[in-house]
Write the structure tokens for this entry.
Amino acid sequence: MRISEVSTLCGLSADTIRYYEKSGIVPAIDRGPDGLRRFSPENVEWLTLLYWLRKTGMPMKEMQRFAGLYRQGDRTISERRTLLLNHANRLKERRDELDRCEQVLAHKLAAYDRIEGETS
């Protein structure tokens, strides 16, 4: 697959894919005789994971740490799992904060609805 196809599949722009490759957070991508990248299904899976990690707010530094651990092989699975668990916990905390924000907004909107109802 070429970069434009991969971009569509994983959600990352071609520029972001190139940036991630240069920054070392993407495992090696093969190149064809023409010098163009040839993405494997594993590359697409990895880039899709990076898309979602970034979309959920994982800092680049943590993504680089995760990629570095991945390059070290299976002996780092426990560390990678811990890193992802910590991220999942931060997501849960953020979700709880957003739920609370939604409740506050709903309360305020209900108050405005009451006020408008009284003045109509």
Notes: The mean pLDDT is 94. Helices lie at 3-10, 14-23, 41-55, 60-71, 77-119.
